[in-house]
Amino acid sequence: MTLFDICQYLQDTNFGTSLRESQYMFPLVETAHVLGLGASVGLIIWTDLRLIGAALRKEPAIEVHSQLKPWMAAGFTLMFISGIMLFWSEAAKLYNSDTFRAKLIFLTVAGVNALIFETRESKTGEVARIQLGDLPARAKLTGWVSLICWIGVIVFGRWTAYGLK
């Protein structure tokens, strides 16, 4: 069984077909996805802007991150679950979509970037020790990579949603 066959199977399940053909559920799931994206990425952007020194410079970066983290996680969870449901309903179509693949690449890089930041920060505490002012180059790089990746996720996600190749 190929990966395409698995995608076709998912799409053809009762759940996939019902969701895709539902007059109300598909738009509700899509709305949840966009709201989760707005909550998660909107707050991630504030953290990233603090890391690169473009906003909230009078606030310690680690405090900005710590205060927003539960809300970012909640938004990401909503976005992730609804995204799986959207994929499930159109898996075979998305399998062949170059824009969807680009979105997944940006999403993966964003996740790895965040994981590295979280594990490195909890290990070294470098960002926590610097209360105000400029952060180390690694922290700025983390912020820039995150911003670029999330812009890519949004652009390619919208591009995918509107059926453009």
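Next protein, fold it too.
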Amino acid sequence: MEMVNALGRRKSAVARIFVTEGTGKITINNKDLQDYFPSSILQYVVKQPLAKLDVVEKYDIKVNLDGGGFTGQSQALRLAIARALVKINADDKKALRSEGFLTRDAREVERKKPGQPKARRRFQFSKR
């Protein structure tokens, strides 16, 4: 198998991944998965598409992660991994789609408006 690359985005986070056959090692920005995401919940989120297809220890994944916070980054990485797995084997698309791993979450932060403290919050109205 040759190297397969894919892209995943979530909020302002961008994950570029390169998948090769290997032993299940995930390297993010030259750090191990456990070092980059110390939280077990975020590690679980990243490995969800691999666990769904039972290929956790079949592929080595090298990741370039940029932008956003840790939650957005982990979800961007999950999308990228799911897209790469579909490139490797198109038959897996139905299983990943049913779990929602191939859907790009398009929600972004709404901009702050002038004359208000936040996007929707207004300063307190005083009648007198």
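About the second fold: The chain has four helices and five strands.
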